[in-house]
Structure to design on (605 residues):
């Protein structure tokens, strides 16, 4: 179906966003001698092997001990290191929430918590590993910056941007091979939403893998004569409320799209912004208060209502409520 | 750093104990028991052993660092910091009050000089200290990192993750200590959750062990710290088992968990202060 659509963004290659992190970390290590890496027995999964090989003295294997890893990273900042921790998103957040809360967020330490295999698209491993609550947990923490880039290039750019950002940050990415549709030379501005497609009838605010689904949905809506604006919200916190309000002032309704629970994620962040400033119809695309299950990424996005078709349906519903 | 006589250090301990009791009494909240018990050790560190600068810098480069993992013992640390010149002694009077930098548990949020990480939720400080020690190695900084933990805190799993890690990574610029007062909130540790042989546990995890059998005797504490220092730089982390008496220095508080988190009333305070000489002037 994608091939027959007139897409505003196209791709020639697919790659996993975790590789964007791995390649970004290697470059960050070359640029800045204070960058250090920590990993809890998932070097291959997090694509941290190249960094480890080139900077063995700045890489710390922690073993299967994520709580300790967060504490170590907090301690390493004292004296000027910039630690990037790597494990699955589930073990990067829920498992170590109190360690992050006290030793990193409340203590305002310059730790970069880098989390792979987030959301449904990790696929066959199933719901034990498919965390869908991490954005909510992290965005509730004061001092915490929360970033969820959309493709390989954006993940690499975000990783590099985090080196110069001072303060606690959560970087979320994933496992599946995914279209690379943003430029390799992009400048990543933390907290600055990126309007990818101009439109006038409805705004689609998307984050992570679902930005691609939003790009596809825009083309589908256009075929039906609906003009959708697509905004890439790579930074969930701090949220670019100005970009959100400007867009909705124009379009009058919106859809949020995220690989996350409806509770507590991007949709709730946008709803909070709209309700306080410019109440407007908002439809959510996300997981509706359930756990995931095993399957392929495509099957899971379809079954749980997170693909382009679902964004199209949500957009029409939002339009009808205007 | 200037070395003080044992008499002088004991005099500081007496004043610090007065500070702790008056702070806790003023707000009728806080944790006097372990503060009294750990007093000799923390005073020895800040007034005799550690190289540190009261003109506080967060990065602590070129200084020995101290982390208090059992953050509920905050009154003790605040008193020692104030008496070391990190901030004015009168500020101790704001302990646990609204708008104070002296939070119930140590925190960095309000910018209190001397505090490098929040603590209070137990089990996290050793990991932090190990991380700071590894940064010192990367920075070719030959100073040491000290971490203080409680004995009840040994029931937290993260402590043992950190124990395994420090030995594996040969973090030998680290001296950790456990305040072995054998008490926790719900009672004696052997009744609540028996620690059995902590020394054997830490040894089995690859650490070098130093026992300070008389943790409320300044000479023993200084001797134990000297021994611990002599074991650094040998490829293994060092653990001090600091045998103390909770509530030491006040006859009706000693040796019981009753004063873990209970403040003395007016009469009890007067009785306690009568047992502790005012050596440096109350705040």
């Amino acid at each position: 179906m994608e091939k027959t659509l007139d897409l505003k963004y196209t791709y020639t290659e697919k790659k996993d966003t975790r590789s964007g992190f791995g390649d970004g970390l290697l470059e960050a290590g070359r640029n800045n001698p204070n960058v250090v890496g920590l990993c809890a027995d998932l070097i291959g999964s997090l694509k941290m092997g190249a960094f480890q090989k080139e900077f063995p003295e700045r890489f710390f294997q922690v073993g299967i001990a994520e709580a300790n890893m967060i504490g170590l990273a907090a301690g390493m900042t004292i004296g000027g290191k910039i630690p990037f921790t790597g494990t699955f998103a589930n073990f990067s957040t829920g498992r170590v929430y109190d360690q992050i809360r006290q030793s990193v967020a409340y203590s305002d330490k310059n730790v970069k918590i880098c989390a792979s295999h987030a959301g449904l698209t990790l696929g066959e491993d199933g719901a034990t590993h498919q965390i869908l609550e991490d954005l909510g947990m992290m965005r509730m923490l004061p001092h915490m910056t929360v970033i969820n880039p959309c493709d390989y290039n954006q993940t690499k750019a975000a990783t590099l941007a985090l080196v110069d950002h001072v303060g606690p940050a959560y970087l979320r990415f994933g496992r599946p091979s995914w279209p690379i549709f943003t430029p390799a030379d992009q400048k990543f501005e933390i907290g600055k939403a990126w309007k990818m497609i101009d439109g006038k009838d409805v705004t689609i605010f998307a984050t992570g893998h679902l930005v691609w689904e939003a790009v596809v949905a825009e083309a589908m809506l256009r075929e039906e004569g609906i003009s959708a604006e697509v905004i890439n919200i790579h930074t969930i916190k701090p949220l670019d409320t100005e970009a959100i309000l400007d867009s909705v002032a124009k379009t009058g309704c919106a859809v949020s799209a995220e690989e996350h629970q409806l509770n507590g994620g991007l949709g709730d962040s946008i709803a909070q912004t709209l309700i306080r400033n410019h109440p407007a119809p908002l439809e959510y695309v996300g997981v509706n208060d359930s756990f995931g299950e095993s399957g392929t990424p495509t099957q899971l996005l379809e079954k749980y209502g997170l693909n382009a078709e679902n964004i199209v349906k949500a957009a029409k519903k939002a339009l009808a409520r205007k | 750093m200037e070395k003080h006589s044992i008499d002088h250090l004991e005099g500081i301990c007496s004043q610090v104990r007065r500070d702790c009791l008056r702070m806790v009494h003023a707000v009728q909240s806080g944790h006097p028991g372990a503060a009294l018990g750990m007093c000799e050790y923390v005073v020895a560190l800040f007034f005799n052993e550690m190289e540190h600068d009261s003109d506080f810098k967060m990065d602590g480069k070129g200084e020995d660092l101290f982390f208090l993992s059992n953050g509920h013992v905050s009154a003790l640390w605040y008193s020692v910091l104030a008496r070391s010149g990190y901030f004015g002694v009168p500020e101790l009077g704001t302990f646990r009050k609204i708008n104070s930098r002296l939070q119930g548990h140590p925190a960095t949020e309000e910018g209190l000089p001397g505090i490098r990480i929040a603590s209070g939720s137990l089990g996290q400080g050793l990991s932090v200290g190990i991380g700071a020690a590894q940064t010192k190695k990367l920075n070719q900084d030959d100073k040491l990192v000290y971490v203080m933990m409680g004995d009840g805190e040994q029931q937290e799993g993260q402590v043992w993750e950190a124990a395994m890690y420090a030995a594996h990574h040969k973090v030998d610029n680290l001296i950790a200590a456990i305040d072995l007062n054998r008490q926790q909130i719900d009672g004696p540790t052997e009744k609540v959750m028996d620690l059995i042989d902590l020394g054997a546990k830490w040894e089995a995890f690859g650490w070098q062990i130093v026992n300070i059998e008389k943790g409320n005797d300044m000479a023993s504490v200084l001797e134990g710290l000297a021994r611990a220092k002599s074991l650094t730089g040998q490829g293994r982390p060092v653990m001090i088992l600091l045998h103390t008496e909770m509530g030491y220095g006040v006859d009706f508080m000693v040796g019981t968990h009753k004063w873990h988190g209970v403040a003395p009333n007016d009469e009890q305070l007067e009785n306690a202060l009568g047992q502790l000489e005012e050596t440096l002037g109350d705040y």
